[in-house]
Amino acid sequence: MTLQADLPSMRQLRYFVALADSGQYRRAAEKIGISQPSLSLQISALEEVLRLRLVERRRGGIILTPGGREVLRHAREILSRTEDMTSLARSLQSGMLGTLRLGSTPTIGPYMLPGVVKYLHEAHPDLKLAARDGPPRDVVEDLLAGRHDVIVTQLPLAAADLSVRRLYREPLLLAVAADHPLAAKAKLDHADLSGVDLLALDPSFALHGQVAALCRDTGARMRGEYEGTSLDALRQMVAMNMGATLLPALYARSELSHSDGDVVVVPFRAGLYRTVGAAWRRSLGRPRLIEQFLAAADHVVASAYKGRVLQDRGAG
Q1: pLDDT digit string (tens) for 91-116?
Q2: Pairs from 12-16 (Cβ < 8 Å, separation ≥ 24)
Q3: Which of 48, 94, 101, 220 lies in disulfide reach of 215, CB 3.0 to 4.6 Å?
Q4: DSSP tag of 89
Q5: For the chain, which residues score pLDDT lower than 50?
């Protein structure tokens, strides 16, 4: 006999509860909308599966056996929990409830996600967000391994198994010490960087490649012996006049507005940007939880940052 045959069905449990509540086969059958013989067959099948007599037929109806009373209690609990699970599934499908596991790189998450988390909490208080930062390569690997549901990282992202959605373009600013010759410039031209020492994060970060490209294009010098492990480390090295670096606009807005003015950021006249996007496993499709996150990110970019710090995803 298979395992399935040894277990009562949900239909049998529902019919048994209806019979117990009605006290009569006829009334229970009418309530359920089936014939009385069909109900009798289902109750007999349940007794056979459980190897336990559940009801006693009397002239005025039925009474439950002691075993039947115990089974009824469990049947009610099982049906109630099943209804709860079904309700939960509907809420999860709607995107109004659940936990979204989010990964981000440390050059993006701490400066972009607080606004998104705040908006999600206000709009969908039952939706929980479990966020964790990590190096870009680790974040992508964790996404593919199922440890994250969605990640926010710098684009482009080369992974055939991922769906990618661009979120925004973020200006990159040149950060220099307050007494650096370029600190007084309103805007920079590429020619201004000729011979300037530039600092970068380690090569696992996409920003490293952008600093290297800027060196090639302008004649600046990459100081490879000083690779920062974080944007804060780069800022501290810049403050000590060890070189200049590129800082994302959201970082500058968050961290430099409260600093003592030892580091100054200057924009590029022609504009220098990085593109930030969200990615999730293609096999997931596009579930409602991810839709809610993308909508929140769009809202925050459009209402809080657009026109002042960032360009939205539709820009250039």
Answers
A1: 556 555 467 889 999 999 999 999 89
A2: 12/42, 12/43, 12/45, 12/46, 12/49, 13/46, 13/75, 13/78, 13/79, 14/79, 15/39, 15/42, 15/43, 15/46, 16/43, 16/46, 16/54, 16/71, 16/72, 16/75
A3: 220
A4: H
A5: 1-4, 97, 313-316
User: Is residue 244 within 8 Å of 196, Cβ to Cβ?
Assistant: yes
What pairing do the DSSP bridges indicate for beta strands 162-177 and 263-266?
Answer: antiparallel
How far lies 15's CA from each of 6, 41, 59, 68, 77, in Å?
18, 10, 20, 13, 14
Give the other-Cβ count within 10 Å of 307's Cβ: 9
- Two tokens, residue 119: 């908006």
User: For residue range 159-202, what is the model confidence (pLDDT) as tens digits?
Assistant: 788 999 999 999 999 999 999 999 999 999 999 999 999 999 99
Which one-letter DSSP state was computed for residue 268? Answer: B
Question: What domains are defined for the chain?
Answer: 4-93 (1.10.10.10), 95-316 (3.40.190.290)
